[in-house]
Specification:
Structural class of chain B: mainly beta
Order of helices and strands of chain A: EHEHEEHEEEEEEEEHEEEEEEEEEEHEEE
Number of domains of chain A: 2
Largest sheet of chain A: 23 strands, antiparallel
Strand content of chain A: over 45%
Largest interface: A-B, 52 and 41 residues
Shape of chain B: elongated
Number of helices of chain B: 6
Largest sheet of chain B: 10 strands, antiparallel
Number of strands of chain B: 35
Radius of gyration of chain B: 37 Å
Oligomer: heterodimer
Distance between the termini of chain B: 16 Å
Radius of gyration of chain A: 25 Å
Strand content of chain B: over 45%
Distance between the termini of chain A: 22 Å
Helix content of chain B: under 10%
Number of domains of chain B: 3
Number of helices of chain A: 5
Structural class of chain A: mainly beta
Number of strands of chain A: 25
Chain lengths: 368, 520
């Protein structure tokens, strides 16, 4: 899902497709922003396998995933500064916080056990190595800018942390990942709950890690020697370049995996079925994602669903889905809870597709 | 400023650039940023080495220019050729290795155009020896300059002369004689004399006796090269000089100025004789080449002046008190001379050293760097009026128009002018053929600060100027390779003289509003 709770869809599309962002588009986007905004996306490709023989209570459990997610928090003033300029900030002290970004891309391979407590409760626990592909972090605790009324001074007071992994090799760090989950049936409601991404990754020593806590003020190039203007300008440029340089020192860095928690409930009624789920990922701008997806069989084993969602990187949205049986025990599910944005009913950015294929050995004997 | 924008924008960029095969978006931002500021005083405008601050803080431009000089080397000449001999072997002999074949001491008197020198010290220079050996084996040579002293000993040089018959080579060597003193009293005349001793030995490295045949010969030449005198003493003779020259006079530099009105100018020429010899001289003419040719009219011009010798106290100490004379031209046509704004001065100076002959009994002296010179000195109070003083400066630059560029801009100039000068300026943009492709003009001029009846500024005046560069002009700014800034200054409308003071300041602050097109 790529979403924002305030950034307009039209602006985002123009940006993404490389259009010229005219004043109308920028001002419309600006007017729709709150003081604090966000944008982000997450993709997760996963495979889980668990199996318990009928006469056993414990069986193997395997889970592997490739996860990529990024969350950005930004202020309305930062957006205006970046896309409109600082003309309207004359004489104002603007607060550009929050300005945070976190990007994760990693693979984990976990192995563990599936423990059937009783017929209504099965839990799993797994752990294994994690491989870091990319990581980037920008976080600010202080970011204020001042443009004087007569523009004889610009000041930036900032306290920034910046980390990033190098551009190669593909696998830049190693660590571990763990997770636990449970599933069962309660009063006719099938439920699943899990927490995962419990772990750390240590990235290699070519990673950049720097902190900048400074106040820089630019009053124009001071011309002390008319005969040596270029020297004055060079000195000032070097001062500013050094202040803004995020090159920093290279060193090993470690980062926690983005904690993830998930819970889903499923209840079948005579005429329809309802899925309720909630997801939380610990990245900037992500709020608990809650979805409600009623579905109804429309043809043999094919059902149409109407997913409604709120949260994640975006706000409320709704869409359509289809699910059913491909063959025997092979089930599929495709849905997009963002059709309101695509249709223009919802103005803010929201795109996303969920697709899954399930293979069920038999009820209560396998878990996917 | 762009860095701040980029820092903010990078957050958005990272997000969208994670996917490939997409076009880059573009947009315009309006950036307001300070650009330049400066505080300029009179010392920045005139050059602090030329100005003098008076007790009332008014400013006087002081200008010194050396017109004429005679150095030690131009008064005293040093003999170049020290020693030459062409020695022919009178009989054939078989000489043991290292045997002395020839020894000869010779005192030589040098004619120095009437000068009778007794002592000399070399500041820098070298002694060069060149020798040809026409014997069938190598020979060894020793040369000593007996009445010299370098580091406490006479200068002595030696070397192996290869047999020219066998090798085709000769001896050539150079010796540094910096710091050498020469006692020139070696001859019966007690002056201008140098004594040399030459010794020639059979090849000391030969394993057998050396066969020297009748008629074999050796040529030896010893000479000074690149000698710079540290001092000389004796009688320098009656040395005449007659110098006519034109020298640059850059007090007005490259200023293009229509007219200037000055007053109370002091101008003089100081003659300084640091030579221990009397001098008689005459300033034959002093002309300024400016808007026209103006000759200085003064009683000093054409007058024969006698200047006594410098005094060295104590003798031989090098502690010289020069004899000086100040030719003060105040009251002459100095104002006309300077208001002509000369860019060069033509002068004539003739005279004679020791016009009365050897009245010092051979005790004339001259030291390095202390000769005879004439220095023009001017003091011009900056109490003046001028019109259309034009200054031009050419700045070479290179602006690369990338995918991100400035499309339009406005420059704001806030000026606090504490000088009684108005200024207007214009910027010409030149291409690589030095052809003007555009000009940029502010919407206003920098006004002159108001002055009181005495010509002193009462308060600075504030001016606001804007320079608007439209799309076309901004494009030309990228295309051009040079900018010629032409500034025109005036001292007011009525021709009133204004006085410049050291506390006058020109403060300016330049900011800009740029429409910046960003292509990510």
């Amino acid at each position: 899902m790529v979403e924002s709770r305030t950034l307009l869809n039209d602006f985002s599309l123009d940006f993404y497709t490389g259009e010229f962002l005219d004043s109308t588009s920028k001002l419309a986007a600006l007017n729709n922003l709150n003081a604090k905004n966000n944008i982000g996306y997450h993709t997760m490709n996963s495979f889980q396998f668990g199996y318990i023989k009928t006469e056993k209570k414990i069986g193997p459990y395997i889970s592997t995933s490739h996860q990529k997610m990024m969350g950005i928090e930004f202020s309305k003033d930062l957006f205006e500064l970046a896309f409109v300029g600082n003309k309207s900030f004359s004489g104002r002290d603007i607060d550009l916080t929050p300005t945070n970004l976190q990007l994760y891309e990693f693979i984990d391979i976990r192995g563990g056990i599936l423990w059937k407590i009783n017929d209504k409760l099965t839990i799993n626990a797994s752990a294994g190595p994690a491989f870091g592909l990319n990581y980037q972090n920008i976080s600010s605790t202080q970011l204020q800018m001042y443009t004087s009324e007569i523009t004889d001074s610009i000041a930036l007071d900032y306290n920034l942390s910046y980390s990033r992994t190098p551009s190669y090799p593909i696998i830049k760090g190693f660590g571990f990942s763990a997770g636990i989950g449970a599933e069962g049936v309660f009063s006719g409601i099938q439920w699943q709950a899990s927490v995962s991404n419990l772990g750390l990754i240590w990235y290699n020593d070519r990673s950049v890690n720097t902190k900048k806590d400074s106040l820089i003020e630019f009053d124009g190039f001071e011309l002390n020697e008319l005969s040596d203007i270029s020297s004055d300008i060079d000195n000032e440029i070097h001062r500013i370049e050094n202040a803004f340089s995020l090159a920093g020192d290279t060193a090993k860095i470690k980062c926690n995996l983005p904690f993830k928690a998930n819970i889903s409930l499923q209840k079948e009624f005579q005429a329809f079925k309802i899925d309720i789920s909630a997801l939380y990922i610990d990245v900037p701008g992500f709020i608990p994602y809650v979805s409600l997806s009623p579905s109804k069989k429309v043809y043999k084993s094919i059902a149409i669903s109407l997913p409604l969602k709120y949260g994640g990187f975006g706000g409320f949205n709704a869409g359509l889905g289809i699910e059913g049986v491909l063959k025997d025990n092979i089930h599929f599910k495709i849905s997009s809870p963002a059709l309101l944005s695509a249709l223009g009913v919802n103005k803010v950015l929201s795109y996303g597709v969920y697709a899954g294929i399930y293979f069920k050995f038999s009820k209560n004997e396998s878990s996917f | 400023m762009r860095s701040i924008i980029k820092t903010g924008f990078v957050l958005f960029l990272i997000f969208f650039t994670l996917s490939s095969c997409r076009k880059d978006p573009s947009w315009d931002v309006s950036l307001k940023t300070p650009l330049f500021n400066a505080s300029l005083g009179i010392e920045d405008l005139v050059g602090d080495t030329m100005i003098q601050i008076n007790p009332d803080s008014s400013v006087t431009v002081v200008f010194d220019k050396e017109l004429f000089s005679l150095s030690a080397d131009s008064i005293v000449s040093v003999p170049d050729s020290l020693y030459y001999t062409h020695f022919i072997i009178p009989i054939g002999i078989l000489a043991p290795p290292g045997a002395l074949v020839l020894q000869k001491t010779e005192s030589k008197y040098y004619d120095m155009d009437g000068a009778q020198l007794t002592e000399m010290k070399v500041k820098s220079g070298k002694l060069v020896i060149r020798a040809y050996n026409y014997v069938g084996d190598d020979a060894f040579i020793e040369y000593s300059l007996d009445n010299s002293s370098l580091n406490g000993s006479p200068v002595k040089v030696s070397g192996l002369i290869p047999s020219f018959n066998n090798t085709g080579n000769f001896l050539y060597d150079e010796y540094d004689v910096s710091g050498m003193t020469l006692n020139l009293r070696g001859s019966y005349l007690h002056c201008n004399s140098l004594t040399s001793t030459i010794k020639v030995y059979a090849n000391p490295y030969a394993t057998n006796p050396v066969q020297i045949n009748y008629g074999d010969s050796i040529d030896i030449l010893v000479e000074f090269q690149d000698i710079v005198l540290d001092y000389a003493r004796g009688y320098f003779g009656q040395h005449a000089f007659d110098e006519n020259d034109v020298s640059d006079f850059d007090i007005f530099g490259d200023l293009d100025i229509e007219s200037i009105d000055l007053e109370n100018i002091d101008m003089s020429v100081e003659i300084e004789n640091s030579i221990g010899a009397d001098a008689s001289f005459q300033l034959t003419h002093l002309d300024g080449y400016g808007q026209s040719t103006v000759s200085l009219v003064s009683n000093w011009v054409g007058k024969t002046i006698n200047l006594t010798r410098a005094i060295e106290n104590p003798p031989y100490s090098g502690n010289i008190t020069p004899s000086t004379l100040l030719m003060d031209f105040s009251g002459d046509n100095v104002e006309d001379f300077i208001e002509n704004m000369p860019s060069s001065l033509a002068y004539g100076m003739k005279g004679e050293i020791n016009p009365l002959g050897n009245i010092s009994s051979g005790n004339d002296f001259v030291y390095f760097g202390k000769g005879f010179k004439a220095i023009a000195h001017m003091e011009i109070p900056l109490n003046l009026a001028f019109s259309n003083l034009t200054m031009r400066d050419t700045i070479e630059y290179e602006l690369n128009r990338n995918e991100s560029y400035i499309s339009e801009s406005i420059l704001y100039l806030d000026v606090s002018n504490g000088f009684p000068l108005s200024a207007s300026f214009k910027i010409y943009l030149l291409d690589n053929n030095n052809t003007a492709i555009d000009s940029i003009t502010p919407d206003n001029i920098i006004s002159a600060a108001p002055v009181d009846g005495s010509g002193r500024v009462t308060e600075p005046i504030i001016s606001h100027l804007e320079i608007y560069l439209n799309t076309s002009q901004t494009q030309n700014l990228y295309d051009a390779e040079k900018a010629v800034i032409e500034a025109v200054f005036n001292t007011g409308n009525s021709g009133q003289k204004v006085r410049f003071y050291s506390d006058y300041k020109l403060l300016f602050s330049v900011s800009g509003l740029f429409d910046y097109h960003i292509n990510s």
